[in-house]
Write a structure and sequence with these properties.
It is built from 3 helices and 4 strands. It is α+β, with helices and mostly antiparallel strands and 74 residues long. The strands form 2 sheets. It has a two-stranded antiparallel sheet.
Length: 74
């Protein structure tokens, strides 16, 4: 999984940070999201998908990485 964020869409709600604090954080000056881990381990994927689903600005997306999918299945 590879996580992408669009900082221009971000409204600073912080719901992503609450869902997956190991993956997302916010800038102190304006609350805009930034990534701590663009390719989180499999045990965080569910939390990242939750963050995508609840983001009010739809600023987060994920892309499945083919090599990572194979590694997760092994």
């Amino acid at each position: 999984m590879r996580v992408h964020i669009d900082q221009e869409k971000c409204c600073g709600a912080g719901s992503c940070v609450l869902s997956a604090p190991e993956v997302f954080d916010q800038r102190e000056e304006d609350g805009i999201v930034f990534l701590l881990d663009a390719e989180p381990p499999a045990d965080l994927h569910e939390a990242v998908h939750e963050a995508v689903a609840i983001c009010p600005a739809a600023a987060i997306s994920v892309q499945q990485v083919e090599g990572a999918e194979r590694a997760e299945r092994v």
